[in-house]
């Protein structure tokens, strides 16, 4: 038990050093497999198990007994189907294979921009939520009951999962980085949930000024989610923002629509002392200088890009992770997988500011050869020592 | 030089207002079918230009989505002016997003570019089981089957789909192309496809080379 406590302390120190700008003893390992993949790894039926919290401990325990990680190598369910089903969600639904996904959907019409810009919160509550969640498209009384029921389910599940993770963390001696809020860049919020990927690409050409104003109107609400609702901020806690749309825009569109309001959100977080955790989705090499210029010490998980340039631009300022292609674990030999880890470590680890992570998390155990996954993470554990 | 070069350019440069103005003016002249077909072909040429600019790296996915919308708008204006709708199609493609995956933006971009290039495209939708691909291939006997997916789990579903076509004895009758974020050379080999791409314009070119 004392050994586990010491292990936990050592692991926590890796992250504390990393986040506070010192070189840790070793490259910290922070990957996780998706909850859906972990269910499959534990041998449960994916569609059934997501409704059954009696299997939660078993799912964590089976994955953690096989996989090495400095943090628990399993992601807590991101999209529990219970409350989404109660709310009749249209934007987050389960596919035939059992993974919860986000289909292309719009709830704001182009003609409604002005109304939205004037009072985004009122518009969300009165009109947009009932369009995104059909169980809220009812009388006020029924809406209150549905919302109450769904929120209770959401909360109960979160508490249950949280308590289970707590037991797992103690059993395996994992370090923890507390999640402190989840938000989006204002342009991504507008695209992902209100206007859709396709819709926003019409709007930026047909009504550019409205798009700019809408992003500005969303910004204080994102700051509220990521800053004001989080008392006792710390760089060791993470406010998580997955970045989505920028790589699909041209440079002028990025500068006009995407960057200004996103930068405001990050500045507010940094100013408040809140840790920032970005998933830099797709390829951001065109915008790497913008990322490098952000204030604070931000963890940036990259999906694609040139590791050498990323290191050169971000060194000494931000924390780099990602870039290891998850799909390699399925298609390459064990030696090739380890060689890739070595290649990335050689580029990214010198001088610190790096933690090992895959470019994306496995959504299904079909995505990876588990022997390769184990070989790679154990290689990093045993060799990426400063 | 053609008298429609300015239209090709306007489509290629995604100048929506200019394109609509040219087309509205054209329709008001009560054109013959031959003239309408010439203008439709001109719009297709503009789409080829869009694809070329994308390949050069000066257009991005958002521009491709907009170009698809622009072409659809143009065709909506031009189609009613055709008295006889028969036009020669280059080949047939059945496309769909494989089972387990609900993403369709990439598929839709490819579809609009393939239609623009003159293909007859049958889109079976998202999260489609192997049987839906097999049945549609039996029904329309396409030259090409296109499988789309964004999630990594789509790779396994693509393999199932190709295996399904093999079992139904249909694999040798079609070329199989796959597109989407996770596809790679290795994945294509594993799945048993003929080609893969993460670039819709390039994918359409591959399809053109097959139907020659």
Protein model, in words:
The complex is a heterodimer of chains A (386) and B (212). Helix content of chain A is 54%, strand content 8%. The model of chain A has no long low-confidence stretch (mean pLDDT 96). A five-stranded parallel sheet of chain A has the order 3-4-5-6-7. Chain A contains 17 helices and seven strands. Chain B has 212 residues and is an alpha/beta fold. Chain B has helices at 5-12, 16-27, 33-56, 61-78, 105-116, 130-140, 154-167, 185-191, 200-211, and strands spanning 92-97, 120-123, 144-148, 175-179, 195-197. Chain B has a five-stranded parallel sheet, sandwiched between helices. The two termini of chain B are 25 Å apart. The model of chain B has no long low-confidence stretch (mean pLDDT 92). The A-B interface holds A 93, 95-97, 99, 101-104, 197-198, 200-202, 204-206, 247-250, 253, 282, 326-327, 330-332, 360, 362-364, 366-367 and B 14, 16, 58-63, 65-66, 69, 99-105, 108, 126-127, 129, 151-153, 155-157, 181-182, 184, 186-187, 190. Chain B: Residues 90-212 form the B12-binding domain. Chain B: One of its GO terms (biological process) is tetrahydrofolate metabolic process. Chain B: Keywords: Cobalt, Metal-binding.
């Amino acid at each position: 038990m004392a050994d586990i406590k010491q292990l936990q302390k050592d692991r926590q120190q890796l992250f504390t050093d990393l986040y506070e700008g010192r070189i840790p003893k070793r490259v910290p390992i922070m990957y996780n497999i998706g909850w859906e993949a972990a269910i499959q790894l534990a041998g449960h039926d994916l569609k059934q198990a997501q409704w059954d919290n009696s299997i939660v401990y078993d799912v964590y325990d089976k994955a953690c007994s096989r996989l090495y990680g400095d943090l628990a190598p399993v992601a807590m369910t991101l999209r529990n189907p219970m409350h989404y089903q109660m709310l009749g969600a249209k934007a987050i639904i389960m596919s035939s294979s059992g993974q919860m996904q986000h289909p292309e959907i719009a709830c704001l019409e182009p003609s409604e921009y002005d109304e939205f810009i004037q009072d985004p919160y009122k518009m969300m509550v009165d009109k947009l939520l009932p369009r995104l969640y059909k169980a809220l498209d009812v009388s006020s009384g029924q809406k209150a009951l549905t919302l109450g029921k769904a929120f209770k389910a959401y909360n109960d599940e979160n508490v249950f999962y949280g308590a289970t993770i707590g037991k797992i963390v103690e059993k395996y001696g994992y370090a923890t980085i507390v999640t402190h809020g989840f938000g989006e860049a204002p342009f991504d919020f507008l695209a992902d949930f209100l206007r859709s990927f396709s819709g926003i690409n019409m709007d930026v050409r047909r009504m550019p000024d409205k798009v700019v104003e809408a992003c500005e109107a969303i910004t204080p609400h994102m700051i509220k989610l990521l800053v004001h609702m989080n008392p006792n901020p710390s760089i060791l806690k993470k406010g998580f923002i997955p970045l989505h749309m920028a790589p699909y825009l041209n440079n002028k569109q990025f500068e006009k629509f995407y960057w200004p309001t996103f930068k405001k959100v990050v500045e507010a977080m940094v100013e408040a002392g809140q840790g920032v955790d970005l998933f830099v989705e797709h390829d951001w090499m065109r915008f790497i200088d913008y990322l490098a210029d952000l204030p604070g010490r931000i963890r940036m998980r990259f999906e694609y890009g040139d590791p050498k340039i990323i290191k050169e631009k971000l060194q000494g300022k931000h924390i780099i992770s990602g870039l290891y292609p998850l799909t390699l674990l399925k298609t390459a030999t064990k030696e090739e997988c380890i060689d890739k880890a070595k290649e990335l470590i050689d580029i990214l680890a010198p001088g610190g500011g790096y933690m090992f992570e895959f470019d994306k998390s496995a959504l299904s155990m079909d995505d990876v050869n588990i022997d390769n996954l184990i070989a790679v993470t154990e290689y990093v554990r045993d060799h990426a020592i400063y | 030089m053609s008298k429609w070069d300015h239209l090709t350019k306007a489509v290629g440069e995604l100048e929506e207002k200019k394109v609509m103005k040219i087309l509205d003016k054209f329709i008001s002249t009560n054109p013959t079918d031959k003239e309408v077909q010439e203008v439709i072909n001109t719009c297709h040429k503009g789409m080829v230009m869009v694809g070329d600019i994308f390949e050069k790296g000066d257009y991005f996915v958002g521009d491709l989505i907009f170009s698809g919308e622009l072409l659809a708008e143009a065709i909506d204006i031009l189609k009613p002016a055709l008295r006889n709708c028969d036009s020669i199609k280059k080949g047939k493609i059945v496309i769909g997003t494989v089972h387990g995956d609900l993403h369709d933006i990439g598929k839709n971009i490819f579809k609009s570019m393939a239609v623009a290039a003159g293909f007859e495209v049958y889109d079976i939708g998202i999260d489609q089981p192997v049987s839906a691909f097999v049945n549609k291939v039996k029904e329309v006997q396409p030259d090409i089957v296109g499988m789309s997916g964004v999630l990594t789990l789509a790779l396994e579903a693509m393999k199932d789909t190709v295996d399904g076509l093999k079992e139904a004895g249909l694999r040798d009758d079609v070329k199989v192309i796959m597109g989407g974020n996770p596809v790679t050379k290795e994945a294509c080999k594993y799945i048993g496809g003929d080609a893969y791409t993460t670039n819709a314009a390039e994918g359409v070119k591959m399809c053109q080379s097959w139907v020659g």
